[in-house]
Amino acid sequence: MHPSDGTLRRSLDEPIAVTGAERKHVASCARCAERIRRISADAGAVHAMLRSPNAGVDVAAARVRLARTEAASITGAPMHRSARIPRPGTGRANRLIAGLGLAAAASVVLVVSGGAEDFLSLFQPSQLAAVPVTASDVRSLAGLASYGSVTGGSSIIFEPEPNAADAGAAADLGTPVVGDLPAGTTAAPQYAVVSGGVVTFTFSKDLAEAAAARAGGQLPAMPGGLDGSTLSVLVAPAVVVSYGVDPASLLRGASLPSGQAFIVVETRTPTVTSTGVTVRQLEEYLLSVPGIPPAVASEIRALGDPTQAIPIPIPVDVASGSPVTVNGASGLLIGDSTGLGSAVIWQRNGVVYAIAGTLTSNEVLGIARSTR
Amino acid sequence: MTDIPRPAAAVGVTPTTFDRLFDEEYARVAAIARRVLGDPDAAEDVAQEVFLDLHRRFGDNPGAQAPAWARTAAAHTALNLIRTSRRRAVREKLYAAEPGAAHDPEAAVVTAETTLAVRSALARIPKGQATVLILRYSGLSYAEMASALGIGVNAVGTRLRRAEARLRKEIGDASV
């Protein structure tokens, strides 16, 4: 079998990345030899185009400049230039849609450490389960910071893309195509890709002891391997197709427009990995630690048993969930109790889809069932 | 973590993780922006903006993802500059500032036109593709790019291949 263009391209920079079988094939395949020649020619040409002269940088002076800018921003003096990097918003109006992003993030294919071998085995959950949570925003394991260190999680970058093909290529997914638009939809679709990322929690015996002591208790007996064990949630890039709303404005915390608007989100099912102990062991132990706040306990329970079901945390103050079927795949319909809108989320072949907007439940289900 | 000399601004203050990150990554972040913009001053403006935002978002103890975040943000911010409404002014500045222009007027014109065409093409191709080009030719490994972009290493190769073919086609179509 011919290696992909991507593999051949990488082989030019990192030859070790090519397997022995691929190398053997390429050495005897005239077609692959021609592909490599073409790929190499393009790479060489682009290398020449993107040459950049070296320039000295005074790091110490740059640090002083940054400190001055930060001081000026605190005192209200005008800044050199405003930061324009997109960031997720927390506005109430986008809570439902933010909740969907959260659901995608929390939905998991669980990869649990296999004990002594420290080998990762894969579980494919087949169900979706509504998990009521009271926290309005799930904070990417941030509530666990008293029991260990949390890294990553905030580096979400939002990229508008000019068309479906580019969005799909950027996320390494096929872009979802909506078959039946609700009556009255006039807006053209906009495309974007939200970057993926990894959030890792590393359990610390010392921090957990300190947290238990603050609560006036002691840590229960600890399973072997727990101290320093890690739990990582890997979220893949997501394609966002939006109708009638600029998805970037939602991420900045803007309200949904008053008219008909909805978004379709597609992402590969996220994975959870653990080292040291299994995810379940880590969850159970954390729930037994004295003084763990109810909101944090909810977040932990929201992970549930992901070997069986993808947990979809639903903020009970704004929405409720009920099981539905989308073209044979089990899904969850989320009705918004404030009248803001509806959402549906389902999973097929390792890909999670979600649709949310200022629509009725029947309308989002209709869109979902026509989406390919 | 290596023992890095502390910058003058931090003398007398215990260096934070952010300080160390700044020392280790600032030159690289500026170089990424310079590869897009061509102008060292504009590139340092971008680097400043990136670290300002990074400090605001992550505080004094950014996590292990911070270097990847900073590099990607540098590419995005610089690419935004050549893609937004300010692109005309920036391009004119870049055009005027192209190194070597003073020595050989004829060669300088060719160089400047080529440079302008490349940046114009970078502004036209999908941003995800432009980003991977800039990160790769700024020296990031496939693993580093995968971490920075939140995709797998195989997807990095695929995207880079598409990006190179697309950029070359854009330049060809522009008849440089």
Count of individual beta strands of chain B: 0
Shape of chain B: globular
Q: Could you spell the SSE succession of chain B in H and E letters? A: HHHHHHHH
- Largest β-sheet summary of chain A: 8 strands, antiparallel
Query: How many DSSP E strands of chain A?
Result: 16
Element string of chain A (H = helix, E = strand): HHHHHEEEEEHEEHEEHEEHHEEEEEH
Task: Please report the distance between the alpha carbons of the first and last residues of chain B.
Answer: 46 Å
Low-confidence stretches of chain A: 75-129, 131-142
Mean pLDDT of chain B: 77
Assembly state here? heterodimer
Distance separating the two termini of chain A: 29 Å
How does this structure look, described?
- Chain A has 372 residues and is an alpha+beta fold.
- Chain A is 32% helix and 26% strand.
- Chain A contains eleven helices and 16 strands.
- Chain B has helices at residues 17-37, 40-58, 66-83, 87-97, 105-124, 127-137, 142-149, 153-173.
- Chain B contains eight helices and no strands.
- Chain B is 73% helix and 0% strand.
- The relative contact order of chain B is 0.11.
